[in-house]
Specification:
Strand content: 5-15%
CATH architecture of the largest domain: 2-Layer Sandwich
Shape: globular
Number of strands: 6
CATH topology of the largest domain: Nucleotidyltransferase, domain 5
Number of helices: 15
Distance between the termini: 76 Å
Number of domains: 3
CATH class of the largest domain: Alpha Beta
Radius of gyration: 27 Å
Order of helices and strands: HHHHHHHEHHHHEEEHEEHHH
Length: 453
C-alpha cells in the first residue's frame, strides 16, 4: 500500500514537546529541511505503490531523509539509523514531529526501498538538491550553463582479486550450498584449500612464484572436482538444480578463464560478477576494480561551491568520448538549463557531442579570453571527485549489482550537494550573526562619542 501521510496535530501533546520547540531553528539541518520540497518525492515515488494490497509503506520523507543523511556524512545503514535515534535534528529532518525512542523501520528496509525505487527515479534526489541550492542562492542559473565533465572509477567493495582467493572462495561457496541443500559430497576440500591459499600468499610474498603456481593448480583441481561432483548428484533434482544454477555458472566461468585473459567476460569477484578491471593511469593504483562513472559539475565558482549537476554509471568501460553527449543530455534534463559550454580533458578526443560547445584541454583555436579562463578551472573537478570518494560512498560501493552501482553514484552526488549546501547555510548564519554583532557594537559606541563631543 501507499505510505501513510503524517497527520497534522493542531493541539500540543501534554506529555511530549514538539521537536520544533526543542531544537535550534538556526541549525543548518533545520534550515535545509525547510528548503527541500518533500512533496516532490511523494509525487515521484507514489506510483510505485498499490492502494489495496499489503501493509502501508514507510513514510517517503523518512526514507529519503535517511538516505540523504547517510550520503551527506558517509555513513552505513546501521550508522545512520543509530544517528536517527540519537539526534533530534536528524529526526526533524526526516519529518518527525515528536522525539522517538525507537526505530520506525528495520535496517534492511533501506535496502528494499532502494530496490523498489531504482536508480532512474533516484535522480529526483539530485534534482531537488540543485533546486534547493538555487532557492537559497548557493548557485545561480548562469553557473549551470558552463559545466565540467570527467570520468573516474567507483570501486566496488571487493578484495583484490587473485587466482588463489577466487578459487578458494568458489570452494567455500559450493561447500556451503551443498551443506544447506543436503548434498553429500565425497570431499569438501575446505581444510586443504584454506591451507593452500595461505601457502600461495606466503610464496608470492617471498618471490617464489613457481611454487605458488603449484598451490594455485591444486586449488583449481579441487574446485573442478567439487564442481563435477555436485553436478552429478543434483542431476534430476529440479529444486537443487535451481538453487545451484547461478553459482555453478559462475564457477564454470571461473574454471575456464586464465590469467592472461582480458575483456568483459573475465571474472574478478564471485559475489559481484559485474566488477570490471579499469586502468586510469594512476601511479599509486595501476588498476581499480569497479565501474566507470561520468560526473558533470559546475565550471564557475558558484557562491556555495562546485555542485554536481549530473552523474551516470558506465558499465562495460566505454570510451570517454562516446559518453559525452549522453552526459550533457542528462545534465540538461536534471537542471532544466541548456549547457552552453562543456570543458573536458584530452581523453574525450573524438567525442560524440556538439563540437561547438565542447572545449578540450589544450585546444587553441577559436577561444576567447573568457573560455581560456574557464578552461583553467577544468581541473577543479578532481577535488570534487576526491571529496565524493573520501566523504561520501563513491570510494567504496557496497550496493549489489549494476543497479546498485548507478544508485550509489546518484546518492553520492546528492549527498555531495547537500554537504555544500549545509556548509553554505552555516556560513550565511555566521555572516549574519557577525554583522548583527558589529551593528550592536557600533550602536553602543555611538552614544559614547556623542558624550565626548
Amino acid at each position: 500500500m501507499r505510505p501513510k501521510q503524517p497527520t497534522a496535530e493542531d493541539q500540543d501533546d501534554l506529555f511530549r514537546a514538539r521537536l520544533a520547540n526543542l531544537v535550534d531553528r538556526r541549525h543548518p539541518l533545520v534550515r535545509l529541511a525547510g528548503l527541500i520540497d518533500w512533496g516532490r518525492f511523494e509525487a515521484a515515488f507514489g506510483p510505485l505503490y498499490t492502494d489495496a494490497t499489503g501493509r502501508p509503506g514507510l513514510p517517503t520523507r523518512l526514507m529519503v531523509g535517511l538516505h540523504l543523511l547517510k550520503h551527506m556524512d558517509g555513513l552505513s545503514d546501521e550508522a545512520v539509523c543509530a544517528r536517527y535515534l540519537d539526534s533530534p535534528y536528524a529526526q526533524l529532518f526526516c519529518g518527525e514531529t515528536h522525539f522517538r525512542h525507537g526505530l520506525p523501520l528495520d535496517r534492511s528496509s533501506m535496502t528494499r526501498w532502494r530496490r523498489r525505487i531504482g536508480p532512474e527515479r533516484l535522480e529526483v534526489l539530485l534534482t531537488e538538491s540543485l533546486a534547493a541550492a538555487r532557492q537559497c542562492g548557493a548557485v545561480e542559473e548562469k553557473h549551470l550553463r558552463r559545466v565540467t565533465v570527467d570520468t573516474t572509477v567507483a570501486p566496488k567493495a571487493v578484495t583484490h582479486p587473485t587466482d588463489s582467493k577466487l578459487l578458494h572462495r568458489g570452494i567455500e561457496i559450493l561447500a556451503r550450498l551443498a551443506r544447506r541443500h543436503g548434498v553429500r559430497l565425497r570431499q569438501s576440500y575446505l581444510r586443504v584449500a584454506k591451507r593452500a591459499r595461505r601457502e600461495a600468499a606466503k610464496l608470492i610474498h617471498s618471490g617464489r612464484r613457481r611454487q605458488a603456481e603449484r598451490q594455485v593448480r591444486r586449488l583449481r583441481t579441487w574446485l573442478g572436482r567439487l564442481f563435477r561432483d555436485i553436478g552429478r548428484k543434483i542431476a534430476g533434482d529440479a529444486a537443487a538444480a535451481a538453487a545451484f544454477d547461478g553459482p555453478l555458472a559462475l564457477i564454470a566461468r571461473l574454471l575456464r578463464q586464465r590469467r592472461e585473459d582480458r575483456g568483459r567476460d573475465k571474472l574478478y569477484s564471485l559475489h559481484a560478477p559485474e566488477v570490471e578491471c579499469i586502468g586510469k593511469g594512476k601511479a599509486h593504483a595501476r588498476y581499480e576494480f569497479g565501474v566507470k562513472v561520468s560526473i558533470a559539475t559546475t565550471n564557475g565558482a558558484a557562491p556555495g561551491g562546485q555542485f554536481v549537476l549530473g552523474a551516470r554509471a558506465l558499465p562495460g568501460n566505454p570510451y570517454d568520448g562516446h559518453t559525452l553527449a549522453a552526459q550533457i543530455a542528462q545534465t540538461e534534463r536534471l537542471t532544466g538549463v541548456g549547457v552552453e559550454r562543456a570543458y573536458v580533458d584530452r581523453g574525450y578526443r573524438g567525442h560524440d557531442a556538439d563540437r561547438a560547445r565542447v572545449i578540450l584541454s589544450g585546444q587553441k583555436r577559436g577561444l576567447t579570453p573568457t573560455m581560456r579562463r574557464e578552461r583553467r578551472r577544468r581541473a577543479a573537478i578532481e577535488p570534487v571527485i576526491g571529496h565524493m570518494k573520501s566523504d561520501g560512498h563513491l570510494g567504496r560501493n557496497f550496493l549489489l549489482g549494476t543497479e546498485g552501482d548507478a544508485a550509489n553514484l546518484i546518492l553520492a552526488a546528492a549527498g555531495h550537494n547537500l554537504r555544500l549546501l549545509r556548509a553554505w547555510l552555516a556560513r550565511l548564519l555566521a555572516l549574519l550573526l557577525s554583522s548583527l554583532l558589529a551593528a550592536h557594537r557600533m550602536g553602543l559606541a555611538r552614544p559614547a562619542r556623542l558624550a565626548d563631543a
